[in-house]
Design brief:
Helix content: 40-55%
Radius of gyration: 12 Å
Strand content: 25-35%
Length: 60
């Protein structure tokens, strides 16, 4: 799973929320420099399980 957000928008920066999501999923947040974006990507069974459990409890 991957979440990508622009660094800046009309609502301000997305850095803090993306850092919190990365911390919750126990992954790192990446900066995509050439696109001015922050990216959080689950890449392990553990982080995927954390996300699945969260979405089971709080569906979108």
């Amino acid at each position: 799973m991957e979440i990508v957000q622009a660094q800046e928008s009309i609502h301000g920066t997305s850095k803090e929320i993306m850092e919190r999501i990365a911390e919750f999923l126990e992954v790192r947040m990446e900066l995509v420099v050439n696109k001015s974006q922050y990216r959080v990507r689950t890449s392990s069974a553990k982080s995927n399980e954390v996300l699945i459990e969260y979405l089971d409890r709080f569906p979108l």
